[in-house]
């Protein structure tokens, strides 16, 4: 009967559920976008290495008040410091060195400008996730000898050779130097973190070969020491140990400040969670206003519906309908209105997400939990919007109701 009444009053029902549709559209749209963006950023951060500390001259926290003058004169991390950390640390499982610069990559008449050339040490792929799509990774002997071999990013390989699979075995040049391609990194997609960790647009070589080509004391280079903690070792404990090791290594007196930065990737991940929580609050505020307006619209329609059907209510009660039957009928009608608005809002979000996923650097997905939350809100809102009109209908005197016009 509730569905039949909604069907008989199509225009009125459509207008009343519009506010609910907009509110649910805002909730699902904002939560899905923020959730998808959060997953993308967290995936990019995890690509830096889980439970990993970056020893660098720069602090990665950033922000408008970033004291760059405090860090600019610090010494760059050195390759020989890797061995010292390995020997002294009892909590580190892997330690590697990464240094990078920008160069133009050439093959025949084709050229790609401003790619990242990474010179890495042996345990780099134990810390960073570098999946190989074609060919192989750099071997231990090639690392030790500094052989002129390289693995190339997927997008770079496609641009130079037309197909990433054709890259293996080719000789490329960069800054007047040459390297033989032995592997292609699997496509990772656009990263919000960017260079030097965008492995779709990189060239990775052994550090010893890198050091033979470039002046490693050049302050324009981007060196860092990556330290991954052992299983079940908290990153905070590793940071504390590394601080003592680095102060000993740099021969700093107790009164001197650290001339290095220990960047905890886990802290960076936690900071992004706080940012996305703030964005979610903003989305709830916008959606809440729309839902309140929609709830008043549904309540108003339900009052009108009760008034129009007063004589019917009296007749039903006269032939034995109980209060709870009348109450349930109008509550169901109100809930159906909100649920239909929710379905329309979900359909609009799905359509928009499908379109935006083709143009944005990350796919927008609607998590099942968000859908359940949205429809739970619809049911609760429907009950709250219809409870007063339904109660009025349930308490009507059957004689007075039948006589009403």
List keywords for this structure.
alpha+beta; six-stranded mixed beta barrel; 54% helix; 10 strands; 405 residues; elongated
Walk me through the structure:
With 405 residues, the protein is an alpha+beta fold. The chain folds into two domains: 2-43 and 270-403, no CATH class; 75-259, no CATH class. It is 54% helix and 17% strand. The chain has a six-stranded mixed barrel with strand order 2-3-8-5-7-6. 37% of the residues are buried.
H/I helix tally: 14
According to DSSP, the number of beta strands is 10
Largest sheet: 6 strands, mixed, barrel
Secondary-structure element sequence? HHEHHEEHEHEHEEEHEHEHHHHH
Overall, the morphology is: elongated
Widest sheet, order of strands = 2-3-8-5-7-6
End-to-end separation = 21 Å
Low-confidence stretches: none
Mean pLDDT across every amino acid position: 84
Strand-residue proportion: 15-25%
Radius of gyration: 32 Å
Task: Provide the helix percentage.
Answer: 40-55%
Number of domains: 2
In brief:
This protein has 405 residues and is of the alpha+beta class. 54% of the residues lie in helices and 17% in strands.
Could you outline the blueprint of secondary structure elements for this entry?
Layout: H1 2-8, H2 10-46, E1 52-56, H3 68-71, H4 80-88, E2 92-107, E3 110-120, H5 124-127, E4 132-135, H6 140-145, E5 149-152, H7 154-161, E6 171-174, E7 177-185, E8 202-206, H8 207-213, E9 224-229, H9 235-249, E10 261-264, H10 265-308, H11 310-318, H12 323-357, H13 368-394, H14 398-403
Parallel strand pairs: 3-8, 5-7
Antiparallel strand pairs: 1-9, 1-10, 2-3, 2-6, 2-9, 4-7, 5-8, 6-7
Helix pairs in contact: 1-12, 2-10, 2-12, 2-13, 4-9, 10-12, 10-13, 12-13
């Amino acid at each position: 009967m509730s569905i039949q009444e909604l069907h008989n009053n199509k225009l009125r029902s459509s207008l009343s559920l519009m506010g609910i549709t907009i509110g649910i559209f805002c909730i699902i749209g904002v939560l899905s976008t923020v959730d998808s963006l959060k997953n993308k950023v967290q995936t990019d951060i995890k690509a830096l290495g889980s439970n990993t500390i970056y020893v660098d001259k720069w602090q990665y926290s950033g922000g408008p008040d970033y004291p760059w003058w405090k860090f600019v004169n610090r010494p760059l991390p050195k390759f020989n410091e890797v061995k010292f950390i390995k020997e002294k640390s009892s909590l580190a499982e892997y330690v590697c060195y990464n240094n990078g610069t920008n160069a133009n990559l050439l093959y025949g008449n084709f050229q790609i400008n401003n790619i990242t050339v990474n010179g890495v040490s042996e345990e780099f792929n134990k810390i960073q996730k570098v999946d190989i799509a074609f060919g192989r990774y750099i071997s231990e002997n090639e690392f030790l000898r500094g052989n002129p071999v390289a693995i190339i990013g997927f997008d770079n390989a496609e641009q130079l050779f037309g197909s990433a699979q054709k890259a293996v075995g080719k000789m490329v040049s960069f800054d007047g130097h040459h390297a033989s391609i032995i592997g292609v990194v699997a496509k990772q997609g656009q990263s919000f973190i960017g260079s030097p960790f965008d492995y779709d647009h990189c060239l990775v070589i052994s550090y010893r070969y890198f050091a033979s080509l470039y002046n490693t004391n050049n302050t324009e280079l981007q060196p860092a020491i990556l330290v991954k903690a052992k299983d079940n070792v908290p990153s905070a404990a590793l940071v504390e140990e590394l601080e003592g090791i680095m102060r000993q290594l740099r021969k700093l007196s107790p009164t001197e400040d650290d001339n290095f930065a220990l960047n905890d990737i886990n802290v960076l991940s936690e900071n992004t969670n706080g940012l996305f929580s703030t964005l979610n609050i903003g989305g709830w505020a916008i959606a809440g206003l729309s839902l309140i307006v929609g709830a008043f619209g549904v309540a108003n329609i339900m009052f009108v519906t009760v008034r129009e059907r007063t004589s019917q209510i009296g007749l039903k009660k006269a032939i034995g309908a109980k209060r709870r039957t009348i109450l349930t009928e109008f509550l169901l009608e109100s809930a159906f209105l909100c649920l239909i608005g929710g379905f329309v809002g979900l359909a609009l979000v799905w359509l928009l997400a499908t379109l935006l996923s083709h143009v944005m650097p990350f796919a927008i997905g609607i998590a099942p939990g968000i859908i359940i939350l949205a429809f739970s809100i619809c049911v609760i809102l429907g009950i709250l919007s219809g409870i007063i009109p339904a109660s009025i209908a349930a308490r009507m005197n059957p004689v007075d109701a039948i006589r009403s016009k």
